[in-house]
Amino acid sequence: MAGLRSVLSGRSVAGQVFVLLLVMVLLLVVAAVVALVLQVQRDSTQEARNRSLAVAETFANAPGTIAALNSPDPTAVLQPRAEAARERSHVDFIVVMNTDGIRYTHPRPDRIGRQFVGTIEPALAGEPVVEEIEGTIGRLVQAVVPVEDPDGTVVGLVSAGITLENVGGATEAQLPLVLGAALAALALATVGAALISRRLLHQTHGLGPHEMTRMYEHHDAVLHAVREGVMILDGDGTLLLANDEAHRLFSLPEDAEGRHVRDQGLDPATTELLSSGRVATDEVLPVGDRLLAVNQRPTDPAGRHRGSVTTVRDTTELRALSGRAEESRERLNMLYDAGVGIGTSLDVARTAQELSDLAVPRFADFATVDLFESVLAGGQPDAAAALRRTAWAGIADDAPLYPKHHQFRFVESSPQGRSLATGRAVLEPRLEAAPGWQAQDKERSAQIVEYGVHSLITVPLRAGALVLGVVSFWRSRKQEPFDEEELALAEELVARAAVSIDNARRYTREHSMAVTLQRSLLPRTLPEQNALEIAYRYLPAQAGVGGDWFDVLPLSGARVALVVGDVVGHGLHAAATMGRLRTAVHNFSALDLPPGELLALLDELVGRIDQDEAQDEHVAPVIGATCLYAVYDPVARRCSLARAGHPPPALVRPDGRVEFPDAPVGPPLGLGGLPFESAELELPEGSRLVLYTDGLVEDREHDIDVGLERLRQALAGAGESPEETCRSVLESRRPGKAADDIALIVARTRALPAGRIAEWPVPSDPAAVGELRAAVVRKLAEWGLEELSFGTELILSELVTNAMRHGAPPIQVRMLYERHLICEVYDSSSTAPHLRYATMTDEGGRGLFLVAQLAERWGTRYLPAGKVIWAEQNLPPDV
User: Cα separations (Å) of 685 from 628, 682, 720, 835, 839?
Assistant: First the structure.
C-alpha cells in the first residue's frame, strides 16, 4: 500500500511516469473514438453518393426506360417500376422526369407533374451529377443521370436519392461498442502503467527526480575523472558506457554508446577481446600507437545477467620498445601486399582503384588517383590537358573531395600541381596553413579542412620520363600529420603501382588499335535490298580482338547472300586474316556461284595463305577458319546454304517454331580435299533465319548442346522483328566477360509479290521476238514503267537473239520489278557470252555492248542445267 501511495503521490519518478502514461493513453483513446466517428460519418456520405448514383444509372439504362419515356403516358409505365426498384435498392426515392424537370414518378403521387427540386443542367448535357441538398425529408444525397437514346440524345432524366439519416444509422449502432472498447483499453492501460510504475519504483528505490539527478552527477564525475578507461558492454557486444579515457585510448567516435563493438573501427584483436566477454587480466593489446593493458570481468559473477566491464590502462613505458618494430613490420606488409594486389588486370581504372583500396585505411584515411584523360584511353599523357579522378577510396563516403570521374585541372601552387610540374612528391603536414593548396578551390578547401582532413601527401605517377597523373593521400582520423618516413613509403607504394598502370595503359592502346582495325574490316552499313529485313550485332571479346565476321551481299535476280565466319585465335593476325577472307567472299560472290562451290574456292584460298605464311617464322598460319554461306531467293522463297565447320543456322518459322536445319557440314577451311555440300530450305514469308558464330553458343564451362538449347529458348520467346530477336538472344547469354567474339545476323524473309514477276517461254523462232517485245511493253505499262520500255525492249531483244543463235532451247524470259527492273534470259547451254568491241566492218558483235550501255549492271549466272544472262536497270526517280 505504501508503494501504491508513493506512485499515486507523483513526487517520485515512478509516480510521474504513471501519470504521464495514463494521460497519454487517455488522449489516444479519445482521439481514436473521435476519428472513428468522423470516419463512419464520411463513409456514410460516400455510401449515399455511390448508392444513389448507381441506382439512378441502373434505372436509366434499364430496358424499356426509353420506350416508356416516349409512350403517351410515361407515369403509368414508370411509376410501378420506380417504386419496385426503390424498395429493392433501399433508397428513399426514384424520380423519372422529362428534360424540363417535370416529374413522371415520385414515392408521393401528389408530387407527380411538379417541377423537380435540384440541379439538372449537367445531366441535360450528358454528364451525371451528384449533390447534397436539404430536402423535405431531411438532409439527403441525390444523383441525376441522363437517359440517352441510341444516337446520344437526352430524352429524359432519372434521379435517385437517400437521406443521410438512413445511411448513417451504423454510426449510432457502433458507438456503444466503440465506447466500451475504449473504456476497456483505458482500464488495461491503467493496470499496465501501474505495473510499470511499480517496477520503476523498485528500481529507483523511491527516489525523486532531484535525488536521482544528484546521484548520477556524482557517478559521472567519478567515472570521467579517473585516468583509467572504463567500458561496459552487454552480452551481445553492444557498448553501453565508455568514459572519457576509454574514448581517448580507443579513439571511439562520439556516438559510440549504443553501437556494437564491431562498428567502432577497432582493430580485430581488440574487437575479439571486447566482444567475447571472457576474463582477461593485464592483457596487452597494441591499439594504434599505444600498448594498452586490459582487464575484463563479467558484470554479474553469478552469471544471471550477461555482460562485461572492461578497464584499460595506457602502458606508455613499452611504446619505445615496440612502436618502431610494429611500424616497420606494417610498412613491409603493405609493400608486399602492393606487389601482390596491384596490377591484377590490364585495366587502367581498376589498377588505380586497387592502389587506393590498399592505402585505405592502413596508410591514409582517403586516397585518390587522378590520371590524364589520354592515359585512360591508352595514349601518351598531355601535361596541358585535364585530369580525371579515376579512383577514390576512404573511410567514409561523405568527404568533400572531388568525386570519382570528376574532371578538373590543378593550379600550379597546389601540392598536386607542384608534383605534376616537378615530378617529385610533396608533403603538406598542415593543410590549413597551406595557401597554395587552398587556391585550387577555396570553398571546397574550407569544407575539407572543416571535415577534419589535416595532412596531405601527393606523389606523381611516373613511368620512366612520363608523368601519368598524381596520387593524393589524405589523413583525418589520426591526429599526427604525415612525416618524412611516411612520405618515403608513399613514394615506394606509388612507384610500384605506376609500373602496373603503365602496363595497363600500353595494353589499352594496343587493344584499341586492334579493335579499330577489326571494326574497319567489318561492314559499317548494310547494303540496300528488299529480300530480307536484317538486324545484326557484333560483340568483340574482352580479352582481345578476334576473327569473327559477317556480311550481307546483294546478288543478281533480287537474291541476297548472308555469310558469317570465324578465324580461330585473337589479335591483329586473326583480324587481318578475317579481312582477307571477307574480301575474297565479296569477289567470289560476284561469280554467282552456288554456296558449296564458293566455299571450295575459299578453302583453296586459305590453304594458299597457310603456305605463304608458313615460310615466315614470325607469322603464325591460320590454324582454323569456319564459314557459313547462304543465298536467299525471294522469288522462289528458297534458301541454299553450305557450311565449313560452322555451327548450324537457326530457323524460326512464322508460327514461332524454332528449328536447327540439318544442313551438311564440311571440314573447316584450309584442310582441302573434300567437297562442300549445299542444302535447300523452303522458307515461308516471315521466317527468321539466324546465323551466328560459336562464341554465342559455346564457352569453357558448357558444350555447344547447352548453348544451342539456350538459343532455342531465347528465340522461342523473342519478338517477331529482327531487332527484338537480336536483343532477346544477347540478353539470354550468361552475364560476364565474353571470352570469344560474337557475330549475330537475324534475317526475316520477304517474298517478291507474284504481281511483280513476269515470265514468258520463247520459241526458237526469230518471229517470236516481236511478240515478246509487245508483251514486255504491256507489262511495263501495267507496272507504270513506260519510261523503261525502249531500253528494256532493246536489252531483251539482244539477249533473246543471242540465246537463239548461240544457246540451246528451251529459252525462258523473266522480268522482276524490285529495287531495279531485272531482265533475265535463260537457255540450257553453258556457253559463256563475252563483251567485245566490234570493228567498223563487223556485221555483228555489238549486242552485249549495247546491253552494257543501257543496263546499270549485267552478268551471267550458271545453273546446273544451263545459264541465265541478266541485266538490271535503275527505276525512274518518281517510282
Answer: 22, 10, 12, 38, 50
Kindly report each contact of residues 167-175 with a partner whose C-beta sits within 8 Å and lies 24 or more positions away, as own/partner: 167/44, 167/45, 167/47, 167/48, 167/51, 168/40, 168/41, 168/44, 170/40, 170/44, 171/37, 171/40, 171/41, 171/44, 174/36, 174/40, 175/37
pLDDT top residue among 52 and 533: 533
Task: Indicate the Cα dihedral angle 520, 526, 527, 528, nearest 10°.
Answer: -150
Give the whole-angstrom CA distance, residue 521 versus residue 549. Answer: 9
Query: Which three three-digit cell numbers place residue 712?
Result: 532455342
863/829 Cα distance (integer angstroms):
10
- Give the model confidence (pLDDT) of 307-318 as tens digits: 888 888 877 655
Greatest Cα pair distance in the chain: 145
- In angstroms, rounded to a whole number, what is the distance separating the alpha carbons of residues 318 and 291? 7
d(CA 429, CA 410): 19
Please check the confidence at residue 319 and state whether its pLDDT lies above 80. Answer: no
Query: 653: Cβ–Cβ under 8 A, 6 or more apart, which residues?
Result: 659, 684, 687
The CA angle 757-854-845, to the nearest 5 degrees, is 110
Tens-place pLDDT, residues 408-433: 899 888 999 999 999 999 999 998 88
Cβ within 8 Å of residue 55, ≥6 positions away: 85, 89, 91, 94, 143, 160
User: 382: which 3 cell numbers?
Assistant: 598531355
pLDDT of residue 214: 65
- Residue 305's Cβ-count burial label (10 Å; 0-12, 13-18, 19+) is exposed
Q: Can you tell me the distance from the alpha carbon of 594 to that of 599, in angstroms, rounded to the nearest whole number?
A: 9
Please, which residues have CB within 8 angstroms of residue 415's CB and are 6 or more apart in sequence? 426, 428, 434, 436, 437, 456, 458, 472
Please identify which residue in the block is written with the cell numbers 594496343. 510
Q: For every residue of 11-62, which 3-state class applies, written as one string?
A: CCHHHHHHHHHHHHHHHHHHHHHHHHHHHHHHHHHHHHHHHHHHHHHHHHCC
Given phi > 0 = left and psi -120 to 50 = alpha, else beta, which region is 404?
beta
**CB neighbours of 158 closer than 8 A, spacing ≥ 6?**
56, 57, 59, 60, 65, 94, 95, 96, 97, 144, 145, 147
C-alpha grid cell for residue 172?
A: 449510432
Report residue 794: phi and psi, to 5°: -70, -40
Q: What is the CA radius of gyration of the chain?
A: 46
For residue 546, the cross-strand partners are 570
Sequence-separated (6 or more) residues with CB below 8 Å from residue 782? none
CA distance 722 to 713: 16
